[in-house]
């Protein structure tokens, strides 16, 4: 089932995930380079956030396709895959959150396919899916070390709704990583 073709990048299309999802996950590189951590501030644009430079490193959140196996069968969730020139290069996992918003549980694009409109096409499908379910908007989380993602969400109309300095302290008590919560509110929402 073909859902979206990106008009700016016509070679990008998005479909409901198929049996090739696991293989695509295992062969993809979802890492990104971190050069700074942003000090997020509600009411300020990402390019206005103070930056704390760090020694550059690659960051990758492990993605296990089996973690999302139940999403395919559930009525209130879905997995979509993005294709660039016919090759699977990105995915988004979306569900209905307890608060009524669509929740992007995961969004990832293979490093080789970035800057081709793949993430934007996936977010467009999330918006469509959310409207179809009459949800009030979309929410998602990223981190202050993923400034590229923060800029993307801002460009796509998301607003900063919350900052959690303690979320990752259970994993690493000294981590400078901060959770940043973004919201896309649909018309008529506060």
Automatic annotation (TrEMBL):
InterPro entries: Acyl_CoA_acyltransferase, GNAT_dom, NAT_camello-type, Streptothricin_AcTrfase. It comes from the Bacteria. SUPFAM superfamilies: Acyl-CoA N-acyltransferases (Nat). Residues 24-187 form the N-acetyltransferase domain. Keywords: Transferase. GO terms for molecular function: N-acetyltransferase activity. This is N-acetyltransferase domain-containing protein. Pfam families: Acetyltransf_1 (PF00583).
């Amino acid at each position: 089932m073909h859902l979206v073709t990106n008009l700016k990048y016509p070679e990008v299309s998005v479909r409901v995930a198929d049996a090739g999802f696991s293989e695509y996950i295992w062969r993809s590189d979802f890492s990104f380079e971190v050069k700074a951590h942003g000090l997020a501030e509600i009411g300020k644009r990402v390019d206005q956030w103070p930056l704390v430079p760090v020694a550059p490193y690659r960051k990758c959140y492990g993605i296990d396709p089996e973690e999302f196996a139940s999403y395919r069968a559930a009525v209130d969730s879905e997995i979509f895959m993005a294709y660039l020139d016919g090759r699977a290069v990105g995915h988004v996992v979306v569900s209905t959150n307890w608060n009524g918003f669509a929740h992007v549980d995961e969004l990832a694009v293979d490093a080789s396919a970035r800057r081709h409109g793949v993430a934007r096409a996936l977010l467009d499908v999330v918006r469509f899916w959310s409207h179809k379910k009459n949800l009030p908007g979309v929410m998602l989380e990223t981190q202050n070390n993923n400034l590229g993602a923060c800029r993307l969400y801002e460009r796509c109309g998301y607003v900063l709704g919350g900052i959690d300095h303690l979320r990752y302290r259970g994993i690493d008590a000294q981590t400078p990583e901060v959770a940043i919560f973004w919201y896309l509110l649909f018309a008529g929402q506060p």
